[in-house]
Amino acid sequence: MDHHHEKLRRRAVKAGIRAAKQRHHVLDEREVLSLKVQVLPALPRVMIGLAGAAMIGSGISGVPVDSNAAQAALVIGGLLVVLFAAFGVRRTLSSIVDNLASDAAGELLSSVIGSIADAVDF
């Protein structure tokens, strides 16, 4: 399993453990495939969040423009960018697995289900 698949597996296991604790049972394959997994890495999310914060700061201070409408647009745009950075891009595991080779997809699913079952004690 390469580095990309390993990161995906860790994110899927984390989401699966959270879902299993909420549902109070070990997830089956259908439930694992319906999990939403973060696909946008942390570093770009942080950078996007900082850009949004800079937009908000510049809108509040009025540094680039003196127009109230432009300042309001910067603040609103910055808030939207910060929200995007906070939630990132999430995809269902089934849509991610559909783009993988069948042997890699099977290995990933069995690894995720096994790791969730090992981590959750019911």
What does this structure look like?
Keywords: Membrane, Transmembrane, Transmembrane helix. The chain crosses the membrane at residues 42-63, 69-89. Helix 1 packs across helix 6 (102-119) and helix 3 packs antiparallel against helix 4. A two-stranded antiparallel sheet has the order 1-2. The chain is elongated. The protein has helices at residues 3-23, 29-33, 42-61, 68-87, 93-98, 102-119, and strands at 36-38, 90-92. It contains six helices and two strands, in the order ααβααβαα. It is mostly helical. Helices cover 74% and strands 5% of the residues.
Oligomeric state of this protein: single chain
Sheet bearing the most strands, described? 2 strands, antiparallel
Count of DSSP strands: 2
Task: Determine the structural class based on helices, strands and strand pairing.
Answer: mainly alpha
Question: What radius of gyration results from the CA coordinates?
Answer: 20 Å
Overall mean pLDDT stands at 90
Transmembrane segments: 42-63, 69-89
Keywords: Membrane, Transmembrane, Transmembrane helix
Give the helix/strand layout.
Elements: H1 3-23, H2 29-33, E1 36-38, H3 42-61, H4 68-87, E2 90-92, H5 93-98, H6 102-119
Antiparallel strand pairs: 1-2
Helix pairs in contact: 1-6, 3-4
